[in-house]
Amino acid sequence: MAGILVVDDLPVIRSGIIHILEKNLPERGPFYQAADGQSAVMQARAYRPDIIFMDIKMPNQSGLQAMSQIKAELPDSRIVILTAYNEFTYIQRAIQQGARDYLLKPVRPQHLVEVVEKIYAEIVHERRQMKTMDMVKDSLQKTLPVVEANLIENLIRGTLPETETVEETLALLGKRLHRPAVILAKVDQLENLLSVYSSAELQKIYNRMVDIVRETMPEPQRSLVGYSYPARIVAIVSCDQALQSVDRLYALSQQIRAKIEKQMPFTVTIGLGNAYADWHSIPLSYAEASLARRTQSRIASNKSLHIDDVSRLMIDKTGASFYRVQREQELIEAIKLHNLQLALDITTQIVEYFIERFKDSEDFINAVKNNCSELVSLISWAVVGVGCEERSVLDVFHQQIVSLKGLTELADIRAWTVNSLMELFQLGSQQTQVQRAIDQALDYIRGNFSHSDLSLNSVAEAVNLSPSYLGTQFKRHTGTTYINFLTTLRIEEAKRLLRSTDLSINYIAEKVGYPNVTNFYRHFQRQVGMTPAAFRKQEMNWGCKNLESTNETGVLKKK
Question: How far apart are CA 382 and CA 388, in angstroms?
Answer without folding.
Answer: 9
